[in-house]
Every structure is written in structure tokens, then in C-alpha cells.
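Aim 2, interim progress. The first record below pairs a target sequence with its C-alpha cells.
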Amino acid sequence: MISWRIILGIAKTHLLSKIKQTATAALGVTFGIGAYITLVCFMTGLNNMLDNLILNQTPHIHIYNEIEPSKKQPISLYEDFENSFNVVHSIKPKLSQKKIHNALPIINYLEEKDNVKGALPQVKTQIFYIAGSIEIGGNLTGINVIDEANLFNLSDYIVKGSPEALHNSDNGILLGIGIAEKMSLDIGDRIQISTIKGDIFPLKIVGIYQSGIADLDAIQSFANVKTVQRILGEAENYITDINVKLHNIEDALPLSKKIEQQFNLKAIDIKTANAQFETGTTIRNLITYAVSIALLIVAGFGIYNILNMLIYEKMNDIAILKATGFSGKDVQFIFLSQAMIIGLVGGVLGLIIGFSLASIIDTLPFQTQALPTVETFPVNFNPWFFVIGFTFAMISTFFAGYLPSKKAKKIDPVKIIRGQ
């Protein structure tokens, strides 16, 4: 076998002698990889932003008491009707309380588990917001605001004020932006809330909350757990919900099932709660990767066509090479080397162009009322995208050059010389 130095030298000469065709093939790879990097970085960044908009605010496991009909009606417990077919109309939900029994010991039990990052108590209640003659129905949630900010990124959705301002206020409220706009209220103003029992309490607005979901922002507000317990006239152990954050989201489903069996409570894991949303995310990702791979395949066909034509134009050179002692395998390596050089140059330039375009997109202003904390278009600079793009460029150029090089390997130099 001829040395690689000679093979690469001949491949370089062939490529430089047809510089326009070489440049065209390399640019095909360059723009294919560049478009792939730009598209996949932008689309996955956009998908991550949409996912985080929902999932950042969703606990991995939500524990609460669910109001539901009794599974066994009194007639089913009566022995005389044990073997009968009983029909009960207008079944009413069983009398149950929203409060989670032994909530504080349950929280302590969960936080001792190695796979649990945190378990936070909440007190939820329905209220009316009152400002003058205006009354709007809504929800008030009692939270430990500092812990919520640390575990569920609550501070990302506070457009005015801060978590610390709510934490330090015994009668403060973090008001949804939809309610604030309807009632023309701002930080420092006071708002009265009325419970479903008719009790009225004045609260001071210490922050404005905007989740990006208009229907939620039009009803939701937050206060400290102790504040809501005082409004409801309940003790410190009155907890209606527990939100659990895990180190690994995959542990959510088995742990939720265990909690339901162990404590006789309703425990919803994040994947069950957002099943439809995850389906949409999966479809968007499939479309993104399908289009990206199509771009790379098109670039590979361009290289194949150019190398195929190059072999026909280099028939005499191939015949001379074989006549001077080059084997068919040496000739094949020469044309494979040309394909790999095109892939290497085009791939590196494609990565540079893709990174540059993605960086430009990352600086473009993106302003929307639904996402106040997002200032520029979201871009995901995952290093694996660049590794995959370059690897695919080399693999596609290898296969694009393999078939033409195999054809060059089988060329009979005697027939070519006789044909001349």
C-alpha cells in the first residue's frame, strides 16, 4: 500500500484542481451543518422555555385530600343485600376535610428521604378580592415564600417586589397581575379580601406575580402560610397541600403511588399531571430533529453527486495511477480522503456559522407580556448538538464518498488507455 502522505497529497491536488466543485461540496456541508446547529439550538431552547413555563411551577408530586364519592355505600355494607345487585342514585361525595391529617409529620418524613429535595406546605382557599365596589373571585395560596423561590423558581415570576418583601410582612399579599390591572392596584396599595364565610381582611400588596398564563394570573395570589391560616381561623397545623420536589423526576411516579398507599391521600406525579403537555413537547422535538437530519442528508447527496462526477472527469488520472503501481484500494482511499477532507472543512465551518447565527439569535430582544422575565430569544447551546452535527457531517461525507470511491477502485486502466 502506498503511504498516506502520497495518498493525501494526490487527494489535495484533485480537490484544488477543481476548486469550484470542491467549494460547492464543502459549502453544502457547511450550510447543512450551520442550518442544523442554528435550528436545533433555537427550537430546543424555545421548547425548554415552554416546558419551564409550566414545569417550573409544577411540583414533582402534589399531595392533597380529594373530595370523591364513597367507594362503598351503606347498602353494600348490609349483609342481607350482600349478594344482590344494588343501584344507588344521586350519590353524594362523602364528608371530608381539605386539611391533610398529620401534615407536618408527613413533611418531616418526606424530607428525610434521600431522593427528596424538599417538601413544602401550602394552604389553599377560595376568596373574593374587594376594591371599592369591585368584587372578583379568586384563589389565595399560603406558602413559605423563600422555600418556594429556591425550589420552584417563584422569584422568576415576580415582576414587581421580591420574595423577601412577602416573607417579612405578616399581612402582605403577592397579587396576580391580572387582578392588579383589573383593580388598578400596585405595590404599596391595600386590598381587601373576603373568605367564603364572609370575613373581610385588609392586606398590603408587596409584590406583583405573573406566571405567563393569563387565566391563572387573573385569579391567583399568594401570602405567607401563617397569614392564610389566620385569615381562615385555623391552627398552625392546618395544611391543605404538600408540594414535593425530587432530585430525579423519574422517582415521582413510584413515590406518589407509595404515598397514596401509605397515607391514604391523593398524590399526583408531574408526568401524570402534564401528560398532554409532554406529548406536545415530544412532537415538537421530533419535528425539529427530523428537519435537522433532512438538512444533513441533503448535504450528503450533494457530496455524492460531486464526487461521482469527479471520478468520470478523472478517469485518465485513475488509469495512470493504476498503471504506475497504485492498487485499487489505494485509488479508493484517495477518493475517500477527498470526501473526508470536504466533510472536515465543511463541518468545521458549519459549526462556526451555526454557533455565530445562534449567538446572534440569543441577543435579539424578545418581549412579551406573557413572559416578562424573558428578555431575548431562548437558545440552547448544548455541546452535544455540536458533537452530533460534526459527527454526522463526517459520517455522511464518508458514505457519500464510499460508493464513488468503490467505483474508482474497479476501473480497468487498460480499457481507459485503449479508449484514448
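The second target in this work package is listed in the same format:
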Amino acid sequence: MSTPIRTELLRVQGLRAGHGQLTAVREVSLTLARGDCVALVGANGAGKTTLLRCLAGVHPALAGQVRLAGQDITALPAHRRVQQGLALVPEGRRLWADMTVRENLAVALEHRDPVRAAAAAQPWSIERALDALPGLRPILDRPAGALSGGQRQAAAIARALMSNPEVLLLDEVSLGLSPRVVDEVYVSLQALRDQAGTTLLLVEQDLGRALRFADRVLCLREGRIVLQAACADTTREAVTHAYFGMETLQ
């Protein structure tokens, strides 16, 4: 039986970024194929959030290239990257607290690229997002500032979906959430994978959960990728060794 051909969707080459004199991302290269789910792990300060922010265009890169669906988007500002299909769910969710969930989604819907939406076989709508994230239905008209942590995370994911993303970047998926709520969030993410084939690059501190959920894992240490492997072909121990610097840099 032949292996299906996987279409490359995101290619990052030699990406470097910093904060003042501190280099936070060092010559990072990675690829995502359409439908991939890749977990990005590493200790605090490893450069995970800076990497995602660079990909989304909200933090400047010092060097390197980012290509989405074959197009060089390295020089595009954040809002243009969103329109091209690269959406970030940031740490802290950052919803408009005084607006309802419905209003948060509607604003995002208004600012997406109409050409890409018209060309999509099944563009995201508020109703489709509610089907994928059914926990949002009862709270659709509740102010975002009144939501629980898990509800805010689900609303932030739905807001990102309004842009019809080719790649969805999720920073610190389970940060500050109870284990039960984290389970609910991952049920929603699994639905996105199963129903829409959404391509995901997510930062997750829970290593066990990351290995169970993702197809591949990338371990970042001091701004460099020190391990990349299929989750099925690696172990928690191998990732832990890379995480804490107990192997040779690749």
C-alpha cells in the first residue's frame, strides 16, 4: 500500500530572533505538511513563544525565511499573515473582554480576506465554529471578560478560525487551566483535526499530553531545536533528556 503524498504547507528556514542583546531563537528550521499536528516543547525561556510570535509576524525576525503554501511571507506584517492563512492563539487568549463571544467572532470575521474565504471549499463561519466547539453555544452572548479560563481558550480558538487559517498556532494551550478543562480543550482540538483537517503547531508544557496528541514533537532549548521526532517513534525519556540538555545538539 503506497504512502499518501503530504503537501508541504509551512516552511521555516534559518529563523533568528531576539530581545535586545538576547538571542531567543537561533537558526530554527522546520516544516509542516497539510494536516500535521506538531507539539513544540521546552523549558521556560527556551524561545517557544518568541518563535510562534515570529511566525505570526508580531515579533520581528533578525534573519531567516517563512514560507506559507509556497509563498514567501517573511516581510508581511501580522495582519497580512492572518489574511494569508497563518493565525495565532496567543498566551493569555487576549479577547476583547467587554464584548460578547459572538461580537469577538464577528469582528474577526469582518477582517478576514474575502478572496480567500470565497475560494475556500468550506469557509469558517460562526455556526461552523460552534459545531466544532459546542461548549461556546450557551455562552455566545456572554461578555468574554466573564468567561472561565477554558471558555476563553475555546473562544480564542474560534476567533482564530474566523480567518480561515491554513496553519493554526497555539501558545501555551493548557496554561492556567484545570485538568478537566484541559481535557475539554483537547477534545475541541481533536474535533478540528478530525472534521476540518486543521494544521496545528502548538506549545504545550504537559509533555505526556503533547506526545499523545501530536504527530511530531519539536524540543526547543536555548533557542535551538535539539530534538525533532515522530511521537510514535520517541519516548518521554528521550524528549526529557533533550529538554534538559542531556544530549548532543543536532
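The first helix runs from residue 48 to 56. This observation will shape the mutagenesis plan for the next reporting period.
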